[in-house]
User: Fold these one by one.
Assistant:
Number 1:
Amino acid sequence: MPRTVYVNGEYLPETEARVSIFDRGFLFADGVYEVTSVLDGKLIDFDGHAARLQRSLGELQMANPTTREALLEIHRELVRRNDITDGLIYLQVTRGSDGDRDFVFPAEDTPPTIVLFTQDKPGLADNPVARKGFKIISIEDQRWARRDIKTVQLLYPSMGKMMAKAAGCDDAWMVEDGFVTEGTSNNAYIVTQDGTIVTRQLSNDILHGITRAAVLRFAREAQIRVEERPFTIEEAQAAREAFITSASAFVMPVVEIDGKPVSDGNVGKMATRIREIYLEEMRKAAV
Ligand code: PMP
């Protein structure tokens, strides 16, 4: 059955959805996006994603085509129409099109393009990989300098995932000036030998993960020490544990970095505990 998707105010079968070839998202990657998880038919951390969307749009002087309330209703309608129990909702807003190609932004009254679609992922929170953990490689961070804006300019992260795949691994951590920035599509963490969670501090160098914010809040509430600072691959390889977070993977243990096992190479206790807390709390707060 074709999915029902949302394009500029209309719910349509995916086969009938159309965007202009002049759309700036297509020509210039001039667009931003969000991915929100659905568990048991409910949205996880919707407000976090809506707030970050607003911030990304603001940083690019792009108009927001909706309100929080309208956006929530579109998300819920797509969940209903596509009968999603567990899955993802992808949302993209671009600067639209004024019918030609020009580097200069179009007139301010040019309507933005807004597209949403669902991805059905039965058992999303029960991913068996979470019991096995990720093997990762490190690669140089070759992205632009405004990684805090969630743009659709994802070619380098996509290349990074292909490099990981070619190396027989699950993902890549990017390194700049000797320090890990983040994963290709997730934030990166280590747990030091004394049990402190370490993750890079917020800046323009990394995406301000919605899952990161929740996980750090829950960790602090559970009296776990948290340090927001950069760390190296060598420190990660010598750590007690490592893990990543994202809205679609939640909390995922990392068991190997550049061919070296993290501790004994098994999934760590802290990552498992944080994953459980995160899923339990976020399911309770889902809308
Ligand atoms: N960093 C990058 C580069 C990402 O693409 C993502 C996922 N979109 C994240 C971090 C994690 O962010 P979130 O927890 O909001 O999904």
Number 2:
Amino acid sequence: MSDLKGTTIIWLGHAAVYISTAKGTSILIDPFISANPKYPKGHKLPEKIDLILATHGHGDHISDLVDTAKKHNAIVVGIPEIVGWAQSKGVKNGVGMNMGGTWRHEDIAVSMVEARHSSGIADGDKSVYGGEPVGFVLTIENGPVLYHAGDTAVFSDMQLIREFYHPELAMLPIGDHYTMGPKGAALAAKFLGVKTVLPIHYGTFPILTGTPEELKKHLEGTGIEVKAISPGESLR
Ligand code: NI
Ligand code: MN
């Protein structure tokens, strides 16, 4: 297991993750709460959330983005199309950025990287253009380097993410069907050179059939650890 040096990661089911650093900076990624069948029952988010990161525009990643950002007065960080949409719905603080870029806030450097997926925003009965889907690398001062892949297929340029950012822990979708499954995620973990994988985006709906056990099988002998936790549990 990677040494998280005081950083805590709480899995909130599906792709939703809450991270707080040793210094107390807090980040929520892909807030899918009210309609998330795997959101931990009764789990209360802390009053203070500094940043909310959105990987792409699908409902299972941003359906609670606007409400949560307003309630916690958080800064929404994402590709400009999604941040602009959130601001059009009344979110006050947004930081639009794009792939290859890094934005610093307190003790965290947020880097936006590519993902292989799609990204429309369902807005009433319209589909709004959501820009490109992305992943995020979080480089925490005096802490670990974390990677949240968003929804993606495995792609060979994950080796560039390794070369450039040296992530040690990756949050990877393994459910298959809409993203890579366990076999793809195992290859992704190897490309990324991470020590630890926190599997996400599985088991939420029956169609997301990939399991951590399969991922472990594909990673046997590599030394890469799979930390499968239940929604509401944390890595620290
Ligand atoms: Ni998606
Ligand atoms: Mn998804």
Number 3:
Amino acid sequence: MISANDSKGSDFIRDIILDDIRTNKWGGRVVTRFPPEPNGHLHIGHAKSMCLNFGVAEETGGECHLRFDDTNPTKEEEEYVTSIKEDVRWLGWDWGAHLHYASDYFEALYEFAIDLIQKGKAYVDDLNQEQIREGRGTLTEPGKESPHRNRPVGENLDLFRRMRACEFEEGARVLRAKIDMGSPNLNMRDPVLYRVLKATHHRTGDAWCIYPMYDFAHGQSDSIEEVTHSLCTMEFEDHRPLYDWILNGLEIHHPQQIEFARLNLTYTVLSKRKLLHLVEDGYVSGWDDPRMPTLSGLRRRGYSPESIKTFCDRIGVAKRQTAVEVALLEHCVREDLNQRARRAMAVLHPLKVVIDNFPEGQVEELEAVNNPEDPAMGTHKVPFSRELYIESDDFREDPPGKFFRLAPGREVRLRYGYFITCAGFDKDESTGEVVTVHCTYDPETKGGQAPDGRKVRGTIHWVSAAHALEAEVRLYDNLFTVERPDEVEDYRTVLNPESLTVLTSCRVESSLVDAAPGQHYQFERVGYFCVDSSDSRPGALVFNRTATLRDSWAKIEGGGGKQA
Ligand code: ATP
Ligand code: MG
């Protein structure tokens, strides 16, 4: 298990890179790249990749390029490019002068293909997609050589130039590498390098009707940018022989590809395809729905960049595929917000309390601490008056054992305020629901201490009814009910129907009147919240719950989490 206390340390990739610096392998240089395909928004898995690529560059004085791997014109959009740049910057990473697009290399990639053809290492095939697939063979059977495999170089050059000139229909001809149809690695059985696609590209428009496949674009883009270490996820391990074969064939700068395990999180899906379905099918309100594991979703939920980077440091980098507990991610945001979030009082399920012996119309200002973890954050005032709201479950008509909050005849402390004693309550005759609790306060207990030294077991939060602001509060839970939704055939069958609870008549203390979008708070005893950046307005505040106060990770670790 990953310890929550692991600090940023080394890993096998950093070891390799430090070794290369020591042996001057790349002239001491370190160049990495983060290569998202602009076909979706970034998620927490991409954060892991960024923390590795940008992190290593930062630690070694190297550089990390942001490269859009935009070689598939049919699925990519400019909207994604914009949001990806925003998310990278939000996490605090800087690509400096190195913003690149694989599509900027289309001409160079074409020339590389010509070079391979001239060297007898690539050929134009007339087989269609289906025939190529059939001829590829299986893990147990070798593939069949295409009848076009031994075309003369001149004919291949001519046909490939005509592919570029849009003389052929989609699927009619492809360019293939001439490697080995008997290779045990299916990626080496004459893989397709270029295909005809009559699609408009978001950056190159209609300039091209042939597009390079990922395996042909990626390594050559790395080479053009003089990347030294091409860090990618494990599924590319079987592609590495092809990466190396093409670069060796072209005799150009040859980066080292190193693979590491993707991040998987419990109760979460991280495939862009599945996330897109969740959006398109309306299971969430958008890519930035606070339940989404996207960076925009986490940001809107109230996650800070620091908490996400801490999480990435703690999970580390290795080759073994595991699922990280989502509780660790929540632990990291709690730890961060505990230091920075201003405290405030908010009542999610209001129950009216009348202090019968407090003069009507009188208002007292009590002093509340902004953050006990950071005295420099100071204090703020909260108004106290005759009518208050408390959390309805802080009162019980018939309290069970060990219930130390308000009940008939019981005395409790109001946070930052006085001791109050319950004198009685009113019920709605028709529903049997308690609607008002009557209390008396002890004026001698201001500040929460009784001069006679008597103790109370419970402290509850409250707001002044006349001053509090009405607010909407959105409570979030996991999107899925099972730990590994990826392993379920249809993830829609394991969606959590209670992943969102909207509470519309909550009351928050009046000092939150100017709460700015994205602002973090700890609502005392309730959890960490932030002002929703899309829907909150002055006068109609909306808060998202970032995390509860109960830290299940600290419990797993035996650290004894804070209790709500
Ligand atoms: P998906 O399979 O969800 O579409 P992808 O790998 O195709 O994801 P890219 O846009 O190609 O997404 O990813 C950009 C970079 O981020 C790649 O280097 C990829 O390996 C890395 N990456 C993507 N998902 C994860 C993950 N879950 N954990 C770590 N790195 C990831
Ligand atoms: Mg990809």
Number 4:
Amino acid sequence: MLFISFEGIDGSGKTTIAKLLKEKLKSQGYEVVLTREPGGNEIAEQIRDIILSKKNSQINPWTEALLYIAARKQHVSEDILPALKRGAVVLCDRFMDSTSAYQGYARGLGIRTLDEVQSIVLGTTKPDLTLFFDIEPTAARGRMKARFEDEMDRLDLEKQSFHEKVYEGYQVLISEHSDRIKVVDARKSINEVLEQVSYYIDEVLTKLQGNKNDD
Ligand code: TMP
């Protein structure tokens, strides 16, 4: 019924907000599926383990990109589409824009090139709304440092310049898809962030309702 993705650099706080939003929407009577990428089901979680393992530092950028997309295909077909068909709200912690920002832009494979691959593999499945949790890479790094080193995955451990490039990549995507991607100020308090997120969700629900009435 409604597909919302959460995007941002590592340490932007999106996962915490996704969990709180799930509870809020559930209390309003919605069936809510909170899931994440890479992962969300058994096969995709196995792919996640390969991609994020610190042992695999020699992974080729294309191998990395195709594994993320492979995990996404499994996730879309096994979980996301069935949930949307049942009328659920799907909250997905990262989706196709992560591949565009991390592999397309920061790894240099090209946003356009990966758009083409993703549209071949995923067809027209895309979020109704994407929330970008905006925080400067240096501030996000500070939050990440509060985590224990052994909780960090291969991507978390990338150099600061990589995370800065990812942030730049997201700015490109935001300017190209301003109708779908909404920017949330992630430096604000949790309550303020939740309020901003709820505003964008109401906006998209009203729009979708309007489209339905026009049919
Ligand atoms: P997470 O830490 O948000 O669970 O995401 C795992 C890491 O994988 C994170 O550093 C972002 C990265 N990532 C990509 O590089 N490309 C993708 O397509 C996805 C979904 C995640």
